[in-house]
Amino acid sequence: MAALKISKKHHKHLNNPFPSTPSSLPLLRGSLFFNPQTVPSDQTFIVGKDFQVLWSTDNGGSLSISHQSHPSRPIWSTVPGQAFVSAALAETEVEESRGSFAIKDGNVHLLCNDQTVEDIRLINENDCYLEANELDFLSGNQGLDQKPYLKDTQFPILLLTGWVFRKKKKSFQNTEIHERLQLEAERSTYARYWVLFDQKTSNQIGFQVKFGKPNFEFRSRAFATASRRFRGLKRKLRRTGRSRLGWCWSFSRPRGFVKVSSSEEEKEEKVAESIGFNRVCLTYSSEENERFYGFGEQFSHLNFKGKRIPIFVQEQGIGRGDQPITFAVNLVSYRAAGDSSTTYAPSPHYLTSKMRSLYLEGYDYSVFDLTRKDRVQIQIHGDSVQGRILHGNSPSELIERFTETIGRLPELPEWIISGAVVGMQGGTDSVRQVCEKLQAHNTPVSAFWLQDWVGHRETLIGSQLWWNWEVDTARYWGWQNLIKDLSAQHIKVMTYCNPCLAPTNEKPNRRRDLFEEAKKLDILVKDKNGDTYMVPNTAFDVGMLDLTHPDTASWFKQILQEMVDGGVRGWMADFGEGLPVDASLYSGEDPIAAHNRYPELWAQMNREFVEEWKSAHSGKAREDPEEALVFFMRAGFRNSPKWGMLFWEGDQMVSWQANDGIKSAVVGLLSSGISGYAFNHSDIGGYCAVNLPVFKYRRSEELLLRWMEVNAFTVVFRTHEQGNKPSCNSQFYSNHKTLAHFARFAKVYKAWKFYRVQLVKEAAQKGLPVCRHLFLHYPNDEHVHKLSYQQFLVGTEILVVPVLDRGKKDVKAYFPVGESCSWQHIWTGKLFAKPGSEVWVEAPIGHPAIFVKEGSIIGETFLKNLREFNIL
Questions:
Q1: Do the Cβ atoms of 578 and 499 come closer than 8 Å?
Q2: How many whole angstroms separate alpha carbon 760 and alpha carbon 414?
């Protein structure tokens, strides 16, 4: 039985331009039964000090969890009479192509989708280890890994035990998997499970689900007859209004089942039994009008009700459903266009309009199925699941409580949020020339970000970087003098690196060959044969750092040290989403789970270097904010805010389209903030361009100018010269109009620096994002839940309604219900005092629709600064 199949599609260049959605398990449904002899009738259990779990026998049995401060408001509950845990053994197929991954469910060999509850009990601290001695399900391979999990736990904890099983013959066509699942008429499968709830903090309750090994039985005819009689009794009880349903099972084995002798079918079952389950499902209730937000950085949607969300780090794709670019990209590169769910930085976390929030721990691939109106099902590719359920009275509270556990970004150095970060390429002469032009326009500039500091080479797809992290002294002659001259103007130099290394045999002026050095040190990821894994990436293959190797971090930190010793004060820490799922790592861990952890390890190594560099300096050098280091990255997972410093949204198309362009950049900005990515921004103007004879995607001047207007209200105002074909795309330095507009909005950005500093401090303390969906502060306004990219808040005091469509010169602004204040239009001073109103507002280029709260100190100071910069 092959549980995992991996298909490499890196070099497949003629493909179906309309690939199907990766097949997956359908939403699993099963019945819930309980044993009335061992399970109490309606009862409330106090878990820890602050949570209560209610077991109710109404309508077939259910659980609900609430905080003791609001006992009547459940924060999590199961569907009455429906199984809330289930398990399966299924084949997995992963298709991989240059950082894009499609994970598919194949044949299902085992399925246990019905559930019994045999026991519900509280365990106190004094008797916890007594239970472990008496029962095997609190320790060892068959049950909970008790000691690590119960660290910092507040007693008592609640333990549920019972069985999952396949109750009767089933035969159904799974059109999503395109395989017929034939579950045999007489044969049955069952396994024991354990569910544990324990208080983690005053506002978080943890949960863990584990399963024992599957067992295979034949049902006796007597049991089949009893089963039919039970169903008749069940219907009779329903007619008489009684809802307590009993199903008698023993702790050793469900009654009515007998062991069978060996057979050919038994051989396969023994293999399955040795493997165990590799799918776990957790099912619970949801309300029809409940909206779901979060799931990390998502680009196509903000409300995910009705959708399936796979949680797997990968390239976001080029097009993501927008046409015709999606058609063309998929045709020439397998699934490279991505889809509405592909993202660099997903997170198994959400919060809802009903003030419910949950996140998973661990790094297994998971899918959140929100396609049913009345329930949620989380499917985990693993044999257990662990996570936390959060209590909070507002979206802001829930974000604060989520980030206090997973980690928060530190305060940014003030220099990077003081002016524009100018993305340039071309070498020393080009940088000096552009710097003079910016000075002529009195442009506030914080830094020059020089991505091509390592040198350029020509490949099949255009001009690309040499992935060898040292300065190219031919392209950037006088590197030290350039850094010194810019520093004299209070302008920093930032560079670029990533966790991959390219062979540099053909590079003429290299000083070090980092690929060969890493290969000799044996710190590159290996393939299954133990050789260096050469990972295809765009037009060349690279070696990838094994971040689980104990020698990798110290070696790479020396590279960063050399870069910083030369005067560099920041860098883009690119990539991190492409670890092959068949890689062999030093740690020996499962590469699929390690794949989701890899970007966190990449962030951790960079962050450790920043902190070590700070600690190594003393006196003025250590305290001087002008000397502080910063890095920014695109790939991430749940805990990335703990290790990162600043994020950017990766490579959007130079497009007005919804799934991959200026609109998706706003969606990604807002969704990521809900999951803890408090500091995020996009490339001004987008990045990915196409210049083919059949069709073209070029960065137009209008798109560039409108993107400047949006990003003047994000935490960092940074350009990115369109990379592979820069001459075909409008750049900020293209002409007087683009330069003047860039200077104007760098000043607008500078004008609210005082507020940005406040918001950065608040984010470091509470985890709240700088840019916010209106839902965070107006959760009871129904219209707010319909908004996605149309408008957003900066903190609480500035409302941004950007122009995101070609040729538009006005926008529809919505003023939310929930406060009595008026909103003041910054350009005209006009007040909009009616909450819940929509108004068309003129927004020609240079005058986007921006509003501040009337009478607020923040708003008045912002307007004052705009006047001082001669913007108003």
A1: no
A2: 9
One domain for residues 418 and 367:
no
pLDDT per residue over 24-33, tens digit each?
A: 899 999 999 9
Which of 68-77, 151-160, 309-318 is the least confident region?
151-160
The owner of tokens 């302008």 is: 491
Domain membership of residue 320 (yes or no) is: no
Residue 541 bears catalytic tag: no
Assign residue 488 the CATH number of its domain: 3.20.20.80
Residue in 95, 651, 683, 797 annotated catalytic? 651
574 is catalytic: yes
**N-to-C CA span, the chain:** 71
> pLDDT-derived band of residue 727, with 50, 70 and 90 as boundaries?
confident
Q: Which backbone phi and psi does 597 adopt, to 5 degrees?
A: -85, -20
pTM above 0.85?
yes
User: CA-CA distance, 737 to 730, in Å (whole number)?
Assistant: 11
Helix residue ranges per DSSP H, 451-551 = 479-488, 514-521
Options 470, 577, 600, 709, the catalytic residue: 577
Residue 598 and residue 581 in contact, taking contact as beta carbons nearer than 8 Å? no
3-state helix, strand, coil in the chain (%, to 5): 25, 30, 45
577 in active site? yes
- pLDDT band for position 261 (50/70/90)? very low
Whether 385 and 533 share a structural domain? no
Q: With 80 as the cut, is the pLDDT of residue 274 above it?
A: no
**Confidence band (pLDDT; 50, 70, 90) for 248?**
very low
Sign of the torsion formed by the C-alpha atoms of 31, 36, 38 and 41: positive
- Across 19-23, 330-334, 537-541, 790-794, the highest mean pLDDT is recorded for 790-794
Residue 67 identity:
H
Same domain, residue pair 26 and 124: yes
Annotated catalytic residue: which of 411, 546, 574, 721? 574
Give the tens place of pLDDT for each residue, 89-122: 999 999 999 899 999 999 998 999 999 999 999 9
Nearest CA-CA partner of 83 in 105, 112, 51: 112
3 state DSSP class of 399: helix
In angstroms, rounded to a whole number, what is the distance separating the alpha carbons of residues 108 and 86?
13
> 365: domain range?
4-142+150-168+187-218+275-285+356-391
CA-to-CA dists, residue 160 to 143, 377, 636, angstroms? 12, 19, 34
What does the block give as tokens for 336?
Answer: 């490279």
Query: Cβ distance 649 to 686 under 8 Å?
Result: no
Whether residue 687 lies inside any domain: the answer is: yes
C-alpha–C-alpha distance, residues 670 and 774, integer Å: 9
Query: What average pLDDT does range 393-412 have in this prediction?
Result: 98
Please tell me the distance from the alpha carbon of residue 400 to that of residue 410, in angstroms, as a whole number: 14
For 234, the token pair is 């069940």
Average pLDDT over residues 856-871: 98
